[in-house]
Amino acid sequence: VLLSHNISPLVYSLQSDTESLTGITDSAAGGTALSTGYKTTNGRVGKDKDKNDLLLITELAGSMGLATGVMSTESPIGATPAAFSAHASSRDNSDTLYATQNAIKQKYGTIVNCQFDFYNTYGVDLMKEYIQKTLNKLNENEKGFFLMYEEAYIDKNCHNNDIENAYRTIYRFNQQIAYFMEFAM
What we know:
The chain is α/β, with parallel strands linked by helices. It has helices at residues 27-36, 57-63, 79-83, 94-108, 124-138, 152-159, 163-184; strands at residues 2-3, 67-72, 111-114, 145-150.
């Protein structure tokens, strides 16, 4: 989700090919493709196939003076939020993920607001409150901001063939999209 003082909502669209360079794409390679514009091998977070760091969109936006944020219903070092806020040769290397994520937070002030206690809590209002606080903080930057938001439990519930909870998280995600659009407009 790209929201900025200088960009009108719904004016731009993009298409992305997140296919992994190795096998069926995992979330680390898919997230890295989204956050960098480059394909990589499965398991890599913010790194190319040769394990070199790729420039994350949060790093690019931060270097341009924009505020940056990463939000998810997943752990901060879950594959998708990590792909927007960390670098590691393996998505399973939590020490490296936390260390590089902290370095990016320090350098750019990136807000990493991940709430991973939502598996059994489907409260739309509670998520809206977290989003609102994060948006208000990011919006203090006069140059604008970049924010990535992920509803991780759609994927998790689908992997578990849990249709009822997949529906609940899709509903929650749709409500959050509506809130993001309301904020942008």
